[in-house]
Amino acid sequence: MEDRDASFLYNWVVRIVLLVGIFVGSQFNFRNFDVSRQLYLVTFSLSGVVVILALVVMIWQSRKRVTQAILAEDADQGTTGQVHCGLDLPGTGIFLPCFSFW
Fold first, then answer.
1. What is the pLDDT of residues 41-83, one digit of tens each?
2. Pairwise CA distance, residues 71 & 85, whole Å
3. Among 12, 16, 18, 34, which has the minimal tally of Cβ within 10 Å of its Cβ?
């Protein structure tokens, strides 16, 4: 993995961990200080949604790099690489239902 790709992934992992930390902290406060059970359940549910959305944004930001890597491999093998074009939306369409269950 190149340094640029590694730093991209590292930055996104740190962002996701910070977002989860904010939601877990608020969940902890809502639950332990008896502020509201409804707020606790909402923040509990939203924490999963935030992680999913952060992963989707990360994938959307890195799709050009992945496409370039795939096309470079196809060029080395002698294929045209046109099969890989336009797979961003179907890939996201598969990703969202699978992880929205979580």
1. 888 888 888 888 888 888 888 877 777 766 776 666 655 545 5
2. 9
3. 34
Query: What is the tally of structural domains in the chain?
Result: 1
Q: In Å, what is the CA distance from 50 to each residue of 4, 6, 74, 83, 94? A: 25, 22, 35, 32, 18
DSSP for residue 19: H
Identify the DSSP state of 2. -
How far is 35 from 51, CA to CA, in rounded Å? 24
What is the chain's Cα-based Rg?
19
CB contact set of 37 (below 8 Å; sequence gap of 6+):
30
SS3 36: coil
Of 59, 5, 50, the C-alpha closest to 26 is: 50
pTM of the predicted model, to two decimals? 0.60
